[in-house]
C-alpha cells in the first residue's frame, strides 16, 4: 500500500481511539461495554483489512479468518448458555 | 532394499545426507520424521499398555490388590496423559500422515519441512518434561488426565511440570496441523483437484483444522493451571471469585474436539482400506469428504456434554445434549457409506480389511454408547461410571487404534518393502478382537450397574465383571504381542513386497516400496482417481 | 526438490499461526466475558484504578508501531532498504516504549500491594480480585508477545540489512508484520475492556 494510504489508516485508528475514550466518559450503563466493543471491532477490522492486507487477499483466506473469529464467538456464546442461566 | 541400477536408494537406507542417528533425528524428510514419530508413539503406547495392565491387575479383586489408592490415582492419570497426548492424538496424522500425505498428493514433502522436524522435537521434549514430572517434586500427577480444579490447584503432586509438558506437546500438534493445512492447500500436484484427493487426505485436512483452532485453548488452560499453582492467580478459585466450572468449559472446549482429532484420521484410513479390498469405488465420495468437515465443525459445539452433572445451567444441559445428537449424523453417514461400498464388492479378506471391520464394529458400539451419554437424562445415571470408561475405550481404542493397526497392516509393505505373515496377522487380529471386547464390554455393564470410574476398590457385586475384564486385558496383550512380532519380524525377514501388493489406486502405490528419498522421478502423472481400480496392476 | 519459494504458502502458514494466537487469547476473552457478566460493578470499580491516560498513550503507541511496521514493508517493496530498516527500528522503539509504560503501570500496582495472591488484593471484593487476575494474565501474556515481537523484528532488521530479506523476497518481513499487527489487534480489545470499563 502507498505511504499515504497507510498514514490515512493510522489517522482513522487514532480517531477511533479518541472516539472510544470520549464515549467511555458518557454514562450509558451496559451500553458502554457494547459501544466500546463495537468501536474496538471497527478498529480491528481496519487493522486486519488494511495493515494486514486482508482486503486484497483471496476469498479463501478471508473465509478462514472469518471462521476463526466465528468459532471464538461460538465458544463464548455457548458458554453463556451456562453462565447466564445458572 | 539395496539399490539396483533401476531402483533409487530407499529413504530408509539413503546415506546421501549423512548416516547414523543424526541423519534421522535431524532429517527434514517427511518419511523419516513420520517413522520417528511412529517408533516413539509405539514406545509410549507400550508404556501406556503396561499402566493399563497394572490398573486391571489392581482391579481383579476388591480392596487393595497390588497398590494403594494414591498410587492407583497416579496410574490412571499417567495412563490417560500418555495415551491421549503422546499416543492417540499424534498417532495417525504424525506417523502415517507425515509419511503418506505428500506422496498421496504428488508432492515432494510437506510445506514446511523444518517446522515438521520441530514438531517432532517438541513432541520429544514434551514427553521428556512429562517424564521429569514423574520423577521430581512430590511425585507424578494424580489428578486424572483432566486436571480438574480445585484438586489440580492444591495437590502437591507435580502437576505444574506435567502441565508444561502437555503445553509443549500441544504446540507440536498445532504445528503439524498448520503444516498439513498449508501442504494440502498449496502442494497438490497438477490435476489433483480437491475432488480427486484421497479421502484419507480429506480426513487429515479436517483434523488439521481442529488441531489449529482447538489446541490453543488447551494451551491457555494448562497455562492457567500453572499460573494458579505458581502465583495464585485464582481465576478458577471460588475463594478469589473464580468459577471452577469455567476450567471445565475451557478444558473441554479443546478436549472434546480432540477426540475428533483422534478419530477422523482413523476414519480416513478405513475409507482407504474398504474400497481397496472391495475393489470398488467408495460409495459417496463427496458425502464422506463433507462429513469429515461436518464432524470437525459440529464436534466443536458439544463440549459441555462432559459437564451435565457439574452444576451448570439446565438450559446449557439441554442445548449441549441436542447438539451432541447432531454430531452423530455425519459419523453415521460414513458407516453407511463404508457398508455400501462393501455391498456387491469383490471382497478380498486381508489383515487391513479385518482391522477396518473391527473399527466399524467397535466404533459403532462406542458411538451408540455415546448417545446414551449425550442424552442428558440417561447421562445422570452413567456419568463418571465405568460406562464412560467403556464408551471412550470403544471409540478411542476400538476406533482410532484399530484404525492405526489397520494403517500399519495396509502400509507396512510400502514403508519397509516387506510383507508380513498373513496367517499370523489374522491370528493376532482374532485374539485382539476377542480380548478387546472381553476387556471393555463388561465395563459398559458394570457402569450401568453403578461401578464408579477411577476407583481402585469396589463392592463385591462387581467382581465377576472386573475379573472378565482383567482376563480380557491379558488376552488383548497376547494379541498385541503376536501382531507386533509379526510386523517387526517382517521388516527384516518378510517376503519382499512390490509396489502395489493390494492393487490400490492412490499415488503412494505407484512409487517403489520403500519409497526413495525423492518421492517421485520428475513430475508425477495422475492416471486415475483414488478409487478407480480399472487397469490397476497388482504388483506383489 | 522444489527450491522456488512459495509466497502464498508462507503467508498462509503465518495466517494459520495467527489463528492459533487468536484462540489462545480467545480463551482468556471467554473468561473475561463470563466474569464481566457476573461482576459488572466490581469490574467497573476496579477499572477506575487503571490509568486511562497511560492506556490511551499505549494504544496510540501500538497503533503507531503498526503504522511504522506497514510502512517498512512498503518501503522495502519499493526498494528503499534504508528507509525500511529505519522504520523497523522505529517499530522496535515504539514497542519498547509500550513495555516501559506497562512496566511503570504494573510497578505502581505492585507497589500498592495489588498483585496476584497479595494480601491486599485478597481483601477486595471477589469481582475485583478476578478483574486484577485477568488484568495481570491478559496484559502479561500480551506483553510476552510484544517482547517476542521485538526479538523477531530485531532478526528481521538484520535480515533486511544483509539482504536475506529483499525487495524480491520480502515475505518474511510481511509475515513479521502480520504477527505485529495481531499484537496490536489484541491490545485494541484489551484497552477498552480494562481501561474504559468505568
Write structural notes for this entry.
The complex is a heterotrimer of chains A (86), B (540) and C (198). Chain A has 86 residues and is mostly helical. Chain A is built from three helices and no strands. Chain A folds into two domains: 1-52; 57-86. In chain A, helix 1 packs antiparallel against helix 2. Chain A starts with a helix and ends with a helix. Chain B is an all-alpha fold and 540 residues long. Helix content of chain B is 65%, strand content 1%. Chain B contains 16 helices and two strands. The model of chain B has no long low-confidence stretch (mean pLDDT 95). The model of chain C has no long low-confidence stretch (mean pLDDT 95). Chains in contact: A-B, A-C, B-C.
Name its key features.
heterotrimer; A: 86 residues; mainly alpha; 2 domains; 0% strand; flat; C: 198 residues; Four Helix Bundle (Hemerythrin (Met), subunit A); 7 helices; 82% helix
Q: How do the strands and helices of this protein lay out in sequence?
A:
The complex is a heterotrimer of chains A (86), B (540) and C (198).
Chain A: H1 3-25, H2 30-51, H3 59-83
Chain B: H1 22-25, H2 30-58, H3 69-88, H4 91-104, H5 113-135, H6 151-154, H7 159-186, H8 199-231, H9 244-278, H10 285-298, H11 314-342, H12 351-374, H13 376-382, H14 386-416, E1 418-419, H15 422-448, H16 463-493, E2 495-496
Antiparallel strand pairs in B: 1-2
Helix pairs in contact in B: 2-3, 2-4, 2-5, 2-16, 4-7, 4-8, 4-14, 5-7, 7-8, 8-9, 8-10, 9-11, 9-12, 9-14, 10-11, 11-12, 12-14, 12-15, 14-15, 15-16
Chain C: H1 7-38, H2 40-47, H3 52-77, H4 81-111, H5 119-122, H6 126-162, H7 171-195
Amino acid at each position: 500500500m502507498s505511504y499515504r494510504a497507510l498514514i490515512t489508516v493510522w489517522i482513522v485508528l487514532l480517531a477511533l481511539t479518541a472516539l472510544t475514550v470520549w464515549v467511555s466518559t458518557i454514562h450509558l450503563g451496559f451500553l458502554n461495554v457494547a459501544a466500546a466493543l463495537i468501536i474496538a471491532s471497527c478498529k480491528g477490522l481496519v487493522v486486519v483489512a488494511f495493515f494486514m492486507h486482508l482486503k486484497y487477499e483471496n476469498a479463501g483466506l478471508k473465509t478462514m479468518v472469518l471462521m476463526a473469529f466465528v468459532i471464538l464467538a461460538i465458544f463464548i456464546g455457548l458458554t453463556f448458555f451456562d453462565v447466564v442461566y445458572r | 532394499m539395496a539399490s539396483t541400477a533401476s531402483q533409487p536408494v530407499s529413504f530408509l537406507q539413503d546415506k546421501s545426507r549423512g548416516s547414523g542417528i543424526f541423519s534421522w533425528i535431524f532429517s527434514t524428510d517427511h518419511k523419516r520424521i513420520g517413522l520417528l514419530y511412529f517408533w516413539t508413539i509405539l514406545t509410549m503406547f507400550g508404556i501406556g499398555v503396561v499402566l493399563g495392565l497394572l490398573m486391571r491387575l489392581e482391579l481383579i479383586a476388591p480392596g487393595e490388590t497390588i497398590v494403594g489408592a494414591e498410587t492407583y490415582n497416579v496410574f490412571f492419570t499417567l495412563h490417560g496423559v500418555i495415551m491421549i497426548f503422546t499416543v492417540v492424538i499424534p498417532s495417525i496424522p504424525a506417523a502415517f500422515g507425515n509419511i503418506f500425505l505428500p506422496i498421496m498428493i504428488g508432492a515432494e514433502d510437506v510445506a514446511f519441512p523444518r517446522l515438521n522436524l520441530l514438531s517432532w522435537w517438541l513432541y520429544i521434549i514434551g514427553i521428556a518434561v512429562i517424564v521429569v514430572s514423574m520423577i521430581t517434586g512430590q511425585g507424578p500427577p494424580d489428578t486424572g488426565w483432566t486436571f480438574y480444579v480445585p484438586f489440580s490447584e492444591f495437590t502437591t503432586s507435580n502437576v505444574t511440570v506435567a502441565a508444561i509438558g502437555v503445553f509443549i506437546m500441544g504446540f507440536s500438534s498445532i504445528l503439524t496441523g498448520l503444516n498439513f493445512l498449508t501442504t494440502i492447500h498449496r502442494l497438490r500436484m497438477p490435476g489433483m483437484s480437491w475432488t480427486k484427493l484421497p479421502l484419507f487426505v480429506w480426513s487429515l485436512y479436517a483434523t488439521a483444522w481442529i488441531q489449529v483452532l482447538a489446541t490453543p485453548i488447551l494451551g491457555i488452560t494448562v497455562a492457567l493451571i500453572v499460573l494458579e499453582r505458581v502465583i495464585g492467580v485464582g481465576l478458577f478459585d471460588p475463594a478469589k471469585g473464580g468459577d471452577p466450572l469455567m476450567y471445565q468449559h475451557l478444558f473441554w472446549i479443546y478436549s472434546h474436539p480432540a477426540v475428533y482429532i483422534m478419530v477422523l484420521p482413523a476414519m480416513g484410513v478405513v475409507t482407504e482400506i474398504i474400497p481397496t479390498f472391495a475393489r470398488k469405488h467408495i460409495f459417496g465420495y463427496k458425502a464422506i469428504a463433507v462429513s469429515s468437515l461436518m464432524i470437525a465443525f459440529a464436534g466443536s459445539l458439544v463440549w459441555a456434554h462432559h459437564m451435565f452433572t457439574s452444576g451448570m445451567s439446565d438450559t446449557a444441559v439441554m442445548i449441549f445434549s441436542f447438539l451432541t445428537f447432531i454430531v452423530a449424523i455425519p459419523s453415521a453417514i460414513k458407516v453407511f457409506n463404508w457398508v455400501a461400498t462393501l455391498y456387491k464388492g469383490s471382497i478380498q479378506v486381508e489383515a487391513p480389511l479385518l482391522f477396518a471391520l473391527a473399527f466399524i464394529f467397535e466404533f459403532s458400539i462406542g458411538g451408540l454408547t455415546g448417545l446414551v451419554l449425550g442424552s442428558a437424562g440417561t447421562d445422570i445415571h452413567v456419568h463418571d461410571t465405568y460406562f464412560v470408561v467403556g464408551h471412550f475405550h470403544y471409540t478411542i481404542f476400538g476406533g482410532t487404534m484399530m484404525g492405526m493397526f489397520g494403517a500399519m497392516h495396509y502400509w507396512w509393505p510400502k514403508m519397509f518393502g516387506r510383507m508380513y505373515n498373513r496367517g499370523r496377522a489374522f491370528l493376532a487380529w482374532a485374539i485382539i478382537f476377542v480380548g478387546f471386547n472381553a476387556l471393555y464390554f463388561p465395563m459398559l455393564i458394570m457402569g450401568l450397574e453403578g461401578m464408579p470410574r477411577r476407583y481402585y476398590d469396589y463392592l463385591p457385586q462387581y467382581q465377576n465383571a472386573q475379573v472378565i475384564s482383567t482376563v480380557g486385558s491379558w488376552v488383548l496383550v497376547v494379541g498385541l504381542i503376536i501382531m507386533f512380532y509379526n510386523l517387526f519380524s517382517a521388516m527384516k525377514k518378510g517376503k519382499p513386497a512390490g509396489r502395489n501388493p493390494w492393487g490400490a489406486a492412490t499415488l503412494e502405490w505407484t512409487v517403489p516400496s520403500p519409497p526413495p528419498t525423492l518421492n517421485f522421478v520428475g513430475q508425477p502423472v495422475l492416471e486415475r482417481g483414488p478409487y478407480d481400480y480399472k487397469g490397476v496392476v497388482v504388483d506383489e | 526438490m522444489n527450491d522456488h519459494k512459495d509466497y502464498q504458502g508462507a503467508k498462509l502458514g503465518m495466517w494459520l499461526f495467527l489463528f492459533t494466537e487468536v484462540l489462545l487469547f480467545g480463551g482468556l476473552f471467554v473468561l473475561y466475558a463470563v466474569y464481566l457478566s457476573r461482576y459488572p460493578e466490581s469490574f467497573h470499580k476496579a477499572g477506575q484504578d487503571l490509568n486511562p491516560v497511560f492506556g490511551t498513550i499505549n494504544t496510540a503507541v501500538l497503533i503507531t508501531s503498526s503504522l511504522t511496521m506497514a510502512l517498512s514493508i512498503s518501503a522495502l517493496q519499493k526498494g528503499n532498504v534504508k528507509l525500511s530498516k529505519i522504520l523497523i527500528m522505529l517499530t522496535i522503539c515504539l514497542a519498547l516504549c509500550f513495555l516501559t509504560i506497562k512496566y511503570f503501570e504494573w510497578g505502581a500496582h505492585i507497589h500498592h500491594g495489588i498483585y496476584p495472591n497479595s494480601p491486599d488484593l485478597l481483601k477486595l471484593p471477589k469481582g475485583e480480585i478476578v478483574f486484577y487476575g485477568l488484568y495481570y494474565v491478559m496484559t502479561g501474556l500480551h506483553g510476552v508477545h510484544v517482547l517476542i515481537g521485538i526479538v523477531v523484528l530485531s532478526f528481521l532488521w538484520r535480515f533486511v540489512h544483509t539482504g536475506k530479506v529483499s525487495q524480491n523476497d520480502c515475505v518474511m518481513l510481511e509475515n513479521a508484520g502480520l504477527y505485529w499487527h495481531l499484537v496490536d489487534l489484541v491490545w485494541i480489545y484489551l484497552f477498552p475492556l480494562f481501561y474504559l470499563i468505568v
